[in-house]
Amino acid sequence: MYHFFMALAKYLQNTSWALYISGSTWIYPFVQATHFSGLSLWVGTNLALDLRLMGIGSKRQTAGELSDALFAWNWTGLAIAIAGGFMLFSSAATKYIPNPAFEIKLGILVPLGIILHIIVQQKARTWGQTQQVAAIGKFAGLVEFLWWFSVITAAVSIPNFDTH
Ligand code: HEM
User: Fold this and answer.
1) Candidate of 45, 110, 164 to mutate for ligand 1, largest count of ligand atoms within 8 Å of Cβ
2) Residue 1 — pLDDT band, cuts 50, 70, 90?
3) How many angstroms does the Cα of residue 5 sit away from the middle of ligand 1?
4) Among 39, 64, 68, 141, which residue's Cβ finds the most Cβ atoms within 10 Å?
């Protein structure tokens, strides 16, 4: 499995666009900024819903209404984050494959976090029908809040495990 991912990483890293990103002094920060802008939207809208579920902040909208209002921005953010992340990854893919922080982030935390978010987003309509959120909804909001915090912790630890 490892050899398969390494072969794929070598291929990606040598595509013309990956070489263009890694070889340019200004394209790389631009791609980085794309990843971070998408993440700001994705994580920001996730956390806004989580806080509302926990009962923190403005209660003008129910959790269900807030979830629906943020829906399009939320998924647009993830699409931008994935596009930027994929380009960052491609520019030095063989460096990231053996990196344990990257493996944990992308192999476990991000996929499970997305599944968790889909459940929270769907259930927010039921848990958050009224101003008061059901106890299970508050708990789910807290779990998701902590989950994305862990993803960010793993992500910012990636350079610490860099062996190149
Ligand atoms: C959606 C959840 C994601 C979150 C919350 C997230 C978070 C972050 C953060 C905070 C950083 C900054 C690390 C630093 O510079 O200190 C980062 C960097 C990075 N991300 Fe993501 N990311 C996500 C998804 C992805 C995906 C889907 C990919 C790949 C397809 C990816 C690939 C990368 C790469 C390659 C870096 C650069 C790491 C480095 O060399 O420092 N990310 N991410």
Assistant:
1) 110
2) confident
3) 18
4) 141
Look at residue 91 in the predicted model and tell me its pLDDT.
97
Distance from residue 119's CA to the centre of ligand 1 (Å)? 23
DSSP secondary structure string, the chain?
-HHHHHHHHHHHHTSHHHHHHHH-TTHHHHHHHHHHHHHHHHHHHHHHHHHHHHT-S--SS-HHHHHHHHHHHHHHHHHHHHHHHHHHHHHTHHHHTT-HHHHHIIIIIHHHHHHHHHHHHHHHHHHTSSSSPPHHHHHHHHHHHHHHHHHHHHHHTGGGG---
Q: Is the CB of 21 within 6 Å of ligand 1?
A: no
